[in-house]
Amino acid sequence: MNRYVFSTKDTVRYRLPTHTNDLVMDRAEAETSEAFVVTLETGEATPLHVHHDTEQVFYVLEGVGVVQIGEAPEYYPVNPGDLVRIPPHTFHKIAYTGPQRLRYLCVDAFMGGRPKDEPTWDSHMRVVCEMNGWDFGRVRLEKSDLCKGRRWGPTVDTVVSGLGTGSLPRSEMGRMEVHT
Fold first, then answer.
1. Are residues 69 and 176 in contact, defined by beta-carbon separation less than 8 angstroms?
2. H or E segment and range at residue 13
3. Which of the four pLDDT bands, split at 50, 70 and 90, describes residue 17?
4. Alpha helices, H only, the chain
5. How far apart are CA 114 and CA 180, in angstroms?
6. How many Cβ atoms sit within 10 Å of the Cβ of residue 127?
7. Strands, DSSP E only, in 16-157?
């Protein structure tokens, strides 16, 4: 049975050491796309990464941040209401820079259709966790975990404080050349 409407209130949470993804629409439920809400808390940033099979679109819901585009980085501020396009084969990351969390809707559009080697979000996240040495069982949170307030690892502060998880130090953020 096809689904056409997906609630952002009925998601599956994946708490990575660098940020949180709340899965709204699994790639298994579509031919060429998936959607999730990304949340970055104080000091968090997604790791610099690239997708060769995907074009991404971000719609900023709340908070402010900076998007890094390219390995020879260019920086662009993002604010609520902004739409960001990340072309395939483009290195990128997004960092939180404001006083409140940064939340954005991310839609992945797979150029060649749903990836056959990772046909579900869980299969994709298992690969991401394996590549980064993260425990998938601790990343994918059930609703009961959320009620208990369970989060990743020792503390987010420990992860952010220098383990190379994608965080951008405030001192470095102040020196970035931001394109407007």
1. no
2. strand 12-15
3. very high
4. 121-132, 136-139, 143-147, 156-160, 170-173
5. 34
6. 14
7. 20-25, 33-40, 54-62, 65-69, 74-78, 83-86, 92-96, 102-110, 140-141
The values of phi and psi at residue 140, to 5°, are -80, 115
d(CA 166, CA 24): 23
SS3 35: strand
pLDDT tens-digit profile of 59-91? Answer: 999 999 999 999 899 999 999 999 999 999 999
The structure tokens listed for 129 are 């966790």
Q: Is the pTM of this model over 0.70?
A: yes
Q: What is the pLDDT of residues 35-67, one digit of tens each?
A: 999 999 988 999 999 999 999 999 999 999 999
